[in-house]
Amino acid sequence: MPIGICPTVDFVFKLLFGNPKHSRIAIHFLNAILQHLLKVKEITFLNPIQEQEAEDDKLSILDILATDEHGRTFIIEMQTTVPAGTHQRLAYYTAWQYVDQLRQGQNYVSLRPVISICVLTDPLFRNVPELHLHFVLRSETGVILTEDLQVHVLQLSNLRVKEENLRDASPLEQWSYFLLRAETLTMDDIKRLLPDEVFSEAAGVLDVVAKTPEQKRRYEARLKFQRDEAARALTSEQARELGREEGRLEGRLEGRLEGRLEGRVEGIDEGIERGELFGRIKTLQGLVGVAESTREELSDFSDERLTTMLEQLRDQLRNRNV
Questions:
Q1: Which of 40, 140, 186, 316 falls 20 to 30 Å from 227 in CA-CA distance?
Q2: Which stretch of DSSP H or E encloses residue 135?
């Protein structure tokens, strides 16, 4: 039967990637993220998960904090919603961990890289199709200032790998598939689809959660909390979208009203100009002794024709006075 435990629930995510008993899982995942960068061989967790944490402490799951044999610090977090300020928060905590290394009297060269990894079920960048985004400090032309500050974003919703080509997928794509699908798979499915032993070990962690009453209660409490958070976020987004739509509608109505008002004003101005032109023509017609045109007759003429008539009448008046 399916394992029935979702790895993206933060309590389970930390059991997977923040557990000293299963450090091989975290090392494999980190190397999948780092790809071409210096590989991790050993890892020390600075805030390992306490499996015996009190039930009333169930809402205080922290990000995973670890270091490797190269002195690099890793911040690993799981997010099922994208609250406002997520971009800034990622930059802030990465920079804060970097600055916090330096003690009085130490030189800047003693600073070691800090690498933040944010795994999201919803995309942080909705118009960007990439599964994995890697940010460092660089110039517009690609010159790297430093790789000491790194942010990796894993947008699980952008995974395009299917079951039939999973064996040929990259390790990062395989981890993404595991995080998204493990809940619905059996242990045998995982061994068949993801033959690397590290995935079987990870599935074993999920299976223990499913079969341990205390951990299962903890999991269900966190699952409910995350669903409630997602519902609140959805409600907020719906409210913002409604506000945006109302704003767009208001703008269109205001634009139409303004356009109509401007049209009326322009029409009035044009009417005044033509009325003055009619008056001049009729006055000159009286002075030169020709039959005055009616307003209806003049209204049928174009502005160009009216102007020509006005000039001809002025010429006739000047010739009479010579």
A1: 186
A2: strand 132-138
Within a domain: 178: yes
Q: How far apart are CA 39 and CA 69, in angstroms?
A: 10
- pTM of the predicted model, to two decimals? 0.71
What is the tens place of the pLDDT at every residue in 255-270?
Answer: 555 555 555 545 555 5
- Please report where in the chains the tokens 């975290």 appear, as a residue: 26
In-domain check, residue 38: yes
Other CB atoms within 10 A of residue 285 CB: 17
CA distances (Å), origin 314, targets 84, 274, 292, 293, 311: 73, 17, 15, 16, 5
Cβ atoms within 10 Å of 123's Cβ, excluding its own:
18
Name the residue among 58, 67, 78 with its Cα closest to residue 23.
67
pLDDT tens digits for 160-211? Answer: 999 999 989 999 999 999 999 999 999 999 999 999 999 999 999 999 999 9
- Whether 180 maps to a domain, the answer reads yes
Q: How many domains does the chain have?
A: 1
In a domain, 278, yes or no: no
